[in-house]
Every structure is written in C-alpha cells, then in structure tokens.
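Input for the complex:
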Amino acid sequence: QLQLQESGPGLVKPSETLSLTCTVSGGSISSSSYYWDWIRQPPGKGLEWIGSIYYSGSTYYNPSLKSRVTISVDTSKNQFSLKLSSVTAADTAVYYCARQVDYGAELDYWGQGTLVTVSS
Amino acid sequence: QSALTQPPSASGSPGQSVTIFCTGTSSDVGGYKYVSWYQQHPGKAPKLMIYEVSKRPSGVPDRFSGSKSGNTASLTVSGLQAEDEADYYCNSYAGSNNLVFGGGTKLTVL
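Predicted:
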C-alpha cells in the first residue's frame, strides 16, 4: 500500500523559506505513470494546488505561487520536496503531498498533512 | 487560474439524495474530462471519491456518482448516510499540467 509522509518544521518566521519533504513508501517515485504534488489548506479554508513534479524533474506550478515555489525530487531517497520563499502569515496552512495520476489528473493517494505556521 | 465555484453548503436528510455543483470555465471543467471529487472529514486528509468526471475508485460506494454538462460538474450522493457529512471539493485539470480546486461544499446530513 502506497504511503506518503510529510516532514519539516512546523514553525517558520516571516520572510524566510518554508521547506517540506514528502517521503514515499510502498511504491517508486520513479514510475512514469504519476506526478507528485503539493497542496495546501489554510485553517478553516479550502484546498489550493501548489504544484507538481515528474520523476524526471519536470515541474509545474500554480501561476499565483510560481515566483516563490520550488519543487524538487530525489529519486534515490524516494522523496520530493517543497520550498516556498518569502513566507507571510497568509502561508500558514496544512500542507499535503499527494500522488497525481498521469492520465486523469486525479490525486489518488495523500499524506496526512503537516501544519506549518508562519509567525515570529 | 481562478478557483472553481461551489456552493458553501448543502444538506439533506438520511436516505435522501443531494447534488453538489462545481462551475468552471471552458479552460478547465468544460475543456477536459478530468474532473475529480474529494471528501474531507474534519482533521483528515482528502479522499478521492470520483475521477474522470464519473468514475469511482475501488471501495467508494456506488451511492456517489458524478457527471458534467458544459462548464459545470456535479457530484450526487444518493441514500444519504450520517457518515457522508463532510466537506467536498471538486478539482479539474486546467491545461499545461495545472490543476484547480473548487472552494469546497460543507455537506450536512440533517
């Protein structure tokens, strides 16, 4: 059974860079059939797609966040990562990693999510 | 890209049917057959309920069904049960490997 697990600091200071890693177990991140995504959810609000990466390293970002987002992949560790720069309180959210099916675009497996708070 | 439009809330009594609509544009919902729906209980990660407009993943009850007409997709929950009370989000492919979510609908089972 595929599992995804987010990890990283739960508290980030304003103007700094948020960094999270998603570790994939029970399957290979190098499969050609999937993309690997980050999604976030501010407290009490809806879901926002942040971006995705293919195992080859090709990346795709939400236009509204593109200038601040970097997603990378480490196939040797079966992990992919998110960096969000110049954070503000508006970036406080539960961050989820998920697997996106190549043909169909559905997000079929999700991590449990990790809360990141931006505060000094 | 703008978020897809969903009603903030919906409700129904046990055993009844309820339909949640998700409106986009010809650049997302109307342009592709890649609409999916997610169920989220409080404090939990979203769960895939419908993909490619109307397909159900293994294990999802057939009480859940999806459809699309033009720029609007819909999720219908038939035979409402107490456990169906949750937030529901639609999602669509929006071209250029981008995805867009709806704002979410809180379904209450009366």
